[in-house]
Write a sequence for this structure.
């Protein structure tokens, strides 16, 4: 028995201090993994809780009623009368004003819209349920989960037992504008508003930002004046967005008299905010282009402009686009500056042009989160899901664009 | 001792004859050229003539100013804000630092191949076609094709890349990239080609190819080449200039420089004692 264990001269133990160095390295890697796990955990928590709350917004409950073509003629285009007729025929045992009124509360405010749009030769018709009934069905008729009375809940259970309820994808949530009725409210208007705003924001900030960066990086003399400009651009990038909103309010609305609440002004304000980000990202990607490429072009007798636009800018474009899309993604989630220029108003119709009053996704989320109805809580989470999907789509676009433009080195 | 001194003096007089009775007229002349970066003198009072249709080699220890000198000849030093060039440099009798000189016109006539191959990250074809395109040397696609083919052939690269002209220039091997850069430089038919250690990263075979190419090119072009290889200077050049710490120590016919250097520093360098 010997305690002299032979250590190979090639092992780490043979070199003093090496095991310690390896330990530090391992600990560092562990810390890195822990950080990643934590950030992934937070992200998962956010996504799971939002999905759990919001997925219902994409579905709606419908009730089936029998209908006869003759009733359409009787109603003579009065869809409210037709609706009453249908309900009276379907539920003859519900009598008395109050009971009938209570039953009517189970039918969505948009049922009339559906009736108006149906062809009168159907034997039966699926009418949207009200938000209260919708919530009760989604919560599995749990007591207190909705504002329905005991009596109303019984009716809903009966409808379900008779197989007269079904759950359908709620297309209206994606296409409708805002509404006071939760059944009708959708993110379509806000989505279009956001899209129009982003288009303006991109058109203004990308080209101006890229040209500014190209000029500062490639043409401007490097002196105190450009250094001063650089400091100011960096400062602008960190100015709180609400300040840009105030600037937009004072400048675009009050002085230029542009239409209030419009996506045009919203885009202009967001462009102001995004511009410094794009300039900085573009300058960084221009700086990353090796000088050897510039020298190669100049040595062939290319002018400065030819060198920049034939070689440097195409190579820097992926980085510029990434910076721009990151800036746009931030702009997409901006609420405060849009509120300053009046995009916070209740707007029911999706905007048809850049000058129409519009709202944007984050503002819509803010508005709904303030509503007392339970159905709007679900809508809020649903709108957040749509916003996140939109962001993922944009970032995916950024990756694809980068792939497309990236040159093999 | 005395004997050695005598031969030394003799050789010296022969050398003076050789440089002054230069049979070929100078393509470029540089008189009293001094270059400084900030306040750091990199070149001091260099007088050197570049003979037409000949290869002139610039040799000397690292940091002696060879690249600096070379970059004065096509005004690439203009790109370095701290770099100040004094003296007189003429191409075909015209001062290249004169006020009305357009650097693009100058660089179209004086091409350059860099120490590190720097193809554009574009296709092989576009790499070579870029110069002719910006200078409008081809009136049609066919003419451009012809120029590209000819340049690649003269750079000894055509056989290797003929069927993949659309592949990226950066996908080539190091030696092929360097020959691509040479093809790109000669595609615009410059009068002078400056080469800064074109073979420094290449194996002997690729080096031999490029040396062969230089031999062919000198029939039509004036070539200035910087090299760290004495053998290469001896093999490819007609004239050699030896730089040391920013000064032009000695210049003359390559044969003479290598067989009978007149300056002890030159001798020490070419025999491998310094540098
Ligand atoms: N861009 C620059 N800025 C400042 N100093 C420079 C610059 N380029 C070169 N120098 C200086 O000028 C001197 C000559 O450099 P140069 O590059 O001409 O040497 P070289 O002979 O080409 O050397 P090598 O054989 O290593 O390439 C060196 O002292 C170097 O430090
Ligand atoms: Mg050098």
């Amino acid at each position: 028995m010997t305690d002299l264990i032979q250590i190979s001269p090639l092992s780490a133990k043979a070199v003093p201090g090496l095991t310690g160095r390896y330990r530090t390295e391992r600990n560092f890697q562990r810390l890195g993994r822990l950080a990643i796990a934590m950030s992934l955990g937070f992200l998962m928590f956010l996504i799971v809780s939002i999905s759990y709350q919001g997925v219902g917004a994409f579905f709606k409950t419908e009730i089936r009623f029998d209908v006869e073509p003759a009733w359409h003629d009787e109603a003579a285009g009065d869809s409210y009368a037709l609706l009453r007729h249908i309900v009276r025929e379907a539920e003859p045992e519900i009598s008395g004003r109050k009971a009938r009124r209570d039953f009517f509360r189970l039918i969505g405010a948009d049922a009339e819209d559906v009736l108006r749009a149906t062809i009168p030769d159907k034997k039966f018709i699926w009418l949207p349920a009200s938000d209260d009934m919708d919530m009760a069905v989604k919560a599995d008729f749990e007591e207190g989960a909705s504002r329905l009375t005991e009596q109303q809940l019984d009716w809903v259970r009966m409808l379900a037992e008779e197989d007269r309820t079904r759950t359908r994808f709620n297309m209206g949530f994606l296409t409708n504008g805002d509404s006071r009725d939760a059944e009708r409210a959708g993110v379509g208007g806000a989505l279009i508003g956001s899209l129009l705003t982003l288009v303006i924001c991109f058109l203004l900030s990308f080209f101006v930002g890229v040209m500014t960066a190209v000029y500062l990086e490639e043409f401007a003399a490097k002196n105190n004046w450009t250094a001063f400009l650089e400091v100011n651009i960096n400062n602008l990038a960190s100015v709180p967005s609400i300040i840009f909103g105030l600037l937009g309010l004072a400048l675009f609305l009050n002085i230029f008299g542009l239409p209030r609440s419009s996506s045009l002004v919203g885009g202009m304000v967001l462009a102001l905010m995004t511009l410094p980000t794009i300039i900085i990202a573009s300058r960084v990607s221009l700086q990353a282009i090796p000088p050897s490429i510039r020298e190669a072009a100049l040595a062939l007798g290319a002018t400065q402009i030819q060198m920049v636009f034939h070689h440097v800018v195409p190579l820097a474009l992926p980085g510029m686009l990434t910076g721009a899309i990151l800036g746009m993604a931030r702009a997409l989630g901006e609420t405060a500056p849009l509120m300053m220029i009046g995009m916070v108003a209740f707007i029911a119709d999706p905007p048809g042009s850049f000058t129409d009053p519009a709202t944007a996704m984050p503002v819509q989320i803010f508005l709904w989160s303030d509503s007392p109805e339970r159905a709007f809580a679900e809508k809020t989470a649903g709108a957040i899901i749509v916003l996140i999907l939109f962001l993922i789509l944009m970032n995916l676009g950024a990756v694809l664009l980068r792939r497309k433009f990236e040159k093999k080195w | 001792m005395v004997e050695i001194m005598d031969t030394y003096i003799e050789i010296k007089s022969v050398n003076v004859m050789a440089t002054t009775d230069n049979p070929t007229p100078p393509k470029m002349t540089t008189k009293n050229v001094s270059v400084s970066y900030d306040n750091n003198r990199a070149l001091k009072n260099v007088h050197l003539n570049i003979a037409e249709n000949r290869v002139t080699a610039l040799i000397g220890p690292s940091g002696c100013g060879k690249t600096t000198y070379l970059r004065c000849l096509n005004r690439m030093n203009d790109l370095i804000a701290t770099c100040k060039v004094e003296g007189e440099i003429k191409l075909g009798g015209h001062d290249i630092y004169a006020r009305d000189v357009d650097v693009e016109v100058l660089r179209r006539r004086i091409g350059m191949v860099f120490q590190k191959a720097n193809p554009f990250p574009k296709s092989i074809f576009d790499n070579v076609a870029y110069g002719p395109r910006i200078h409008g040397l081809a009136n049609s696609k066919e003419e451009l094709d012809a120029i590209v083919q000819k340049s690649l052939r003269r750079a000894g690269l055509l056989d290797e890349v003929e069927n993949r002209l659309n592949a990226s220039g950066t996908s080539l091997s190091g030696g092929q990239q360097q020959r691509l850069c040479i093809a790109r430089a000669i595609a615009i038919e410059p009068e002078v080609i400056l080469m800064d250690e074109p073979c420094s990263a290449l194996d002997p075979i690729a080096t031999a190819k490029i040396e062969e190419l230089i031999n062919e090119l000198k029939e039509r072009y004036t070539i200035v080449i910087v090299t760290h290889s004495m053998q290469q200077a001896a093999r490819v050049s007609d004239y050699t200039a030896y730089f040391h710490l920013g000064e032009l120590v000695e210049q003359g016919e390559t044969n003479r420089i290598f067989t009978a250097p007149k300056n002890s520093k030159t001798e020490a360098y070419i025999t491998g004692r310094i540098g």
Summary: Residues B 66-67, 196 surround magnesium ion (ligand 2) (CB under 6 Å). Chain B touches chain A through 29 residues (CB under 8 Å). The domain at 26-270 of chain B is CATH 3.40.50.300 (Rossmann fold). Chain B has one domain: 26-270.
